[in-house]
TrEMBL record, chains A, B:
Catalyzes the ATP-dependent conversion of 5-aminoimidazole ribonucleotide (AIR) and HCO(3)- to N5-carboxyaminoimidazole ribonucleotide (N5-CAIR). Catalyzes the ATP-dependent conversion of 5-aminoimidazole ribonucleotide (AIR) and HCO(3)(-) to N5-carboxyaminoimidazole ribonucleotide (N5-CAIR). InterPro entries: ATP-grasp, ATP-grasp_carboxylate-amine, ATP_grasp_subdomain_1, PreATP-grasp_dom_sf, PurK, PurK_C, PurT/PurK_preATP-grasp, Rudment_hybrid_motif. ATP binds at residues 112, 152, 157-163, 187-190, 195, 218, 277-278. The keyword Nucleotide-binding applies. Pathway: Purine metabolism; IMP biosynthesis via de novo pathway; 5-amino-1-(5-phospho-D-ribosyl)imidazole-4-carboxylate from 5-amino-1-(5-phospho-D-ribosyl)imidazole (N5-CAIR route): step 1/2. Homodimer. GO terms for molecular function: 5-(carboxyamino)imidazole ribonucleotide synthase activity; ATP binding; metal ion binding; phosphoribosylaminoimidazole carboxylase activity. It holds the Pfam family RS_preATP-grasp-like. One of its GO terms (biological process) is 'de novo' IMP biosynthetic process. This is N5-carboxyaminoimidazole ribonucleotide synthase. The keyword Ligase applies. Keywords: ATP-binding, Ligase, Nucleotide-binding, Purine biosynthesis. Belongs to the PurK/PurT family. The gene is purK.
Amino acid sequence: MASPASTPMIRPGGTLGIVGGGQLGRMIALAAADYGLKVHIYAPDADSPAFDVAHAHTLAPYDDAAALAAFADACDVVTYEFENIPHATAAVLAEHAILRPSATALLTTQDRLSEKDFVASLGIPTAPYRAVDSAEDLVRALDALGRPAVLKTRRFGYDGKGQRMIREGDDAAALLAEFKGVPCILEGFVPFEREISVVAARGPDGAFAAYDPCANEHRDHILAFTRVPAPGLTRATGDAAVAIARAIAEALDYVGVFAVEMFEIAGPEGAARLVVNEIAPRVHNSGHWTSEGALTSQFAQTVRAVCGWPLGDTGRTGGMAVEMENLIGAQADAWAELLAEPGAHLHLYGKAESRPGRKMGHVTRLKPLG
Amino acid sequence: MASPASTPMIRPGGTLGIVGGGQLGRMIALAAADYGLKVHIYAPDADSPAFDVAHAHTLAPYDDAAALAAFADACDVVTYEFENIPHATAAVLAEHAILRPSATALLTTQDRLSEKDFVASLGIPTAPYRAVDSAEDLVRALDALGRPAVLKTRRFGYDGKGQRMIREGDDAAALLAEFKGVPCILEGFVPFEREISVVAARGPDGAFAAYDPCANEHRDHILAFTRVPAPGLTRATGDAAVAIARAIAEALDYVGVFAVEMFEIAGPEGAARLVVNEIAPRVHNSGHWTSEGALTSQFAQTVRAVCGWPLGDTGRTGGMAVEMENLIGAQADAWAELLAEPGAHLHLYGKAESRPGRKMGHVTRLKPLG
């Protein structure tokens, strides 16, 4: 654990750098501003939503070492809103600024194979998996894991992109060929009861604070609803999920907010089993409910953690039940109805263009515990 | 009342203009961003805190007609964070954009004399007052109202600036001379029990929504604490206060958020009497508690009102009691302790320089109803 002397607090008035200009960066920027920080966004897209709410931005590609160095030099601490940051990029950032979470956390979690190797090394269950670098690898992996199984690219996947289910009778080699030779992983299919996630934070002093585990419901491979408390999740299983998240954070000496997605598998005689699906080294869509539903939002918590400030209270607002609904593509066209809905809290991301499958906003609803 | 056809809703993705770059503009900008709006700030100071969170800003004096016109042309609707906007400025803005609240609301409330004349014309009590444009006026006014009385400049006063108490034995003419000939008003001293304020909103369709009346405690003429529910305020007096605020808003055909400060004066046999002290045609410091303490913050409510959207729920979060404490000058140096205080919500305004008497931030605390 780092000593207090090595982890100075960033002062209000200082500058928080955020790599990535999407809605997650935007919401972190809003939280940082509310704490009196300046925000500097680094992103390669001119119409990045986060640019609109930042003191400064750098519009440059992720492999522009000079721009990265100048950006990091201008920041007191740098964080990121997505994990697909090239290692060389992270190395430049870490050389010129405090990078939180660390480059190690990025490296470990941006590749499905190294992520699963890491989780397995902690004695925490994952779905069974095999590396797949060739058609021969895939044949062997399918022999070992059976069908159905899920073929995924090791990197750059999100919202179901970069993955294919391989069922009985499917031409596995043809599915693999769609990924054009990029390194893949085959994961055994897990017949889960529910998908939950734990969003939590760890500070540079080792302080840890988790939000209540939430249940996630996907449609078309995109998160549609998050519900807290997770319906049907027992206290014991929820506690076990948080313990898994904490073990992962400690093993990575993690600093910041992160999410661990897990599958809950029904066991014999009601005993449930958890397997880790994915780690996100950043704020997570399944934590959006915290903006109204928790005493500290995951965005404010990110700022607290990476600045070396005390972590905020992760309790639920008034002990209420919370539902977060994503607004995908044209769903956001209902903004006027959502503004008029009693008790609904609307968030829109300011994206210039609505496209099918694109996350345009979300809405949070708080209800008395049922 | 304007017809629906004449009050189109501003769409997310549209641009909200805000005149003024201080913390109020900054907090409105943050709320607007959360609704997917772009924000354009107009202010004459290069280090305006609101610039840091806005899509665009115009750095120009308030009498630069060309800059004002270009700014308003770039906005779908324009609002403001302070009332001391010259009439010519408001006229240019209203010519080039929808200005909400209106120039009439500005004109009426930015001058203590016209404000009091307006309130009195509605049959709503104010402190007794007289216009003072000369030493002779002041003699007559003191004869009529007695001592103590409060001499105030008609315009540009805030946080106790531009006002002097005239007590027995004071050299009234000398006190008047300090104001160097600007138009003044003398107000009879009101021996009030408590100062309360009503923060409320009215939409272009006439919809009205008030927050619970709050009690304000000042130190050195600057708001120090706001408490909701207002301790000791009866339901009947609170309802009367809201009715006064509503009557004022309707008489002005007001669109936006506003605050009405009132004094509660104890009457015979427990009957309380309210007199209006001041109207602020904008979000107000005594409404800062709404960010965590109400279901819709006064900043979000401003955006809803001026965009022609449905007003949000003004109920208190979980029915809790709320206390807002201003952080004045060096008080904000305690930010690290406040971040560590359980249940405290810290807001800092990102001001470059801390000065005695300058509002640097505030903290909100929610507690179970006592």
